[in-house]
Amino acid sequence: MPPKKRTTSSSSGSPANKRGRLDLSDPHPNAQQAEEFGIVLRDFYPPEMSNERCAAYNNGTLERPIGSLQKAYEETADTRQSIKPKNAVVHWFKTDLRLHDNRALYMAYEIARDNKIPLICLYILSPEDLTAHLTSPARVDLTLRTLGQLKRDLGELDIPLYMETQDKRKDIPSRILDLCQRWGVNNLFTNIEYEVDELRRDARLVRLCADNGIKFESVHDTCVVTPGAIHSQQGTQYAVYTPWYRTWVAFLQENPEYLEVVEEPGSNPDDARRHFGDLFDSQVPAAPNNKRLSDKEKAHLEQLYPAGEHEAFRRLEEFLEEKGKSYDDMRNIPAAKSTSVLSPYFASGSLSARTAVSMAKKVNRNRLNSNESGYASWISEVAWRDFYRHVLVQWPFICMNKCFKPEFTNLEWEYDRDQFNAWCEGKTGYPIVDAAMRQLKQDAWMHNRTRMVVSSFLSKDLLIDWRRGERYFMEHLIDGDFASNHGGWGFGSSTGVDPQPYFRIFNPSRQSERFDADGEYIRHWIPELRDIKGSAIHEPYERGAGAVAEKTGYPKPIVKHSESRDRALDRYKRASQSK
């Protein structure tokens, strides 16, 4: 058994091999802990990569996955160009579970319509992908409920949605090929996902399909602005949000077509059910055993987050009408319920970011940015989703258990199981932290302000490896989205883009006083503290309410913030100097 607490050396780098060349396969000094504490899932992935391998992606020695996909298209261009439509066209749904403003779906429909052949929709559930990507049971449940609604909506258009479970993730490309051949399909469409596994899978599928007479088209749809379309004056990808966002806004002003939404597909030909009638009988797959919720949990989450694009669109309209104008003033108050809570619908693809930004721009007098507009502030928050995907494409090693600043993987992280469990259970003795973690556990969601607070607390106050927190979030959030979750943890732990360890060590008590001044959020989620009056709610053991807190079983703080802050600053400084 590993020890309860373990730190790692702050040394950096991988040794040279006997020939004096850099061995890019040598594991990082933290690799043992990464495996012992479930950070690197060895059932699916190799050992943790070295920092030198990260540098090889940066300098182009190693090809980025987006480059592999682009190369596959370039090298099969002539073959694909010669392929003509046959019996039907297929759209492969992934994380784009909607009819409205779905670019690949509409392109597939246009080919089908113009050739007077049916459109078939496909969804493949991959239990291994769900496990490898740490997808939460809550998000799996939302996905399956969304598929049910999607099937009904497509059925009204006489479009079948064929669904199945594929046990082995490596077999998905060949299975898709088999289905296309069975249905007499020569045209396959899907929207691009920018994570490493997905880009590499699509690159293989491009070649596999081309070799078998099928034209596979993967389409940029997830981002408002396509990754790679904007860059700094030096021609490089931005690593800081603010200048990136200014460029993003300017790009959209100069290229308004990027905000044009596409229509829903029309109906299939009348004979679609005659030719593909059995596909209409396809049922929504069951959740894998390790991703199932109890009936009580399912009912609770279904009430909080009804599935499908109709609910997503209703929430968007309601937010813009009732809360959008005041969003900038209220967005940081977790008890105010002033945010849109659209993140589960963005994550599942029930709502496109393009639609959201387009509608917000319209109600904001056709402006994307304005210093006095809550709508503009909300648009800038939606834009973070684009930013983190742009970062992911440029620096793909962040999808491989590494941070944007690989040297901070060397930092002397702690691996205290008891403290980590206290953080998970909302029993750290810091009320704002505990309230947020209990909200996550019950509602599978957390306010963005408190996400920043709890990530800072885990990585700075407890100095626990941020990747353990990143994993815990993915395993519990209904809106778990890799790029945004990783980006948020990079922000909170100061290991990501624009790291500022000296300015981003949140004092949890001050955060609590500033953003939950009356303690409404804390009292809602921590019943042990509901009888405490006034500002003592923020630090009961420091402000004369310790007897009440102790009587109800609320724990004393597990660390002292001032001491933890000094310790964190010292370790970040040493890690920075070791690069």
Automatic annotation (TrEMBL):
One of its GO terms (molecular function) is deoxyribodipyrimidine photo-lyase activity. Residues 1-30, 544-579 are annotated as: Disordered. Residues 87-224 form the Photolyase/cryptochrome alpha/beta domain. Its cofactor is FAD; (6R)-5,10-methylene-5,6,7,8-tetrahydrofolate. Keywords: Chromophore, FAD, Flavoprotein. The keyword Flavoprotein applies. It comes from the Eukaryota. One of its GO terms (biological process) is nucleobase-containing compound metabolic process. Belongs to the DNA photolyase class-1 family. This is Photolyase/cryptochrome alpha/beta domain-containing protein. The lineage of its organism: Eukaryota, Fungi, Dikarya, Ascomycota, Pezizomycotina.
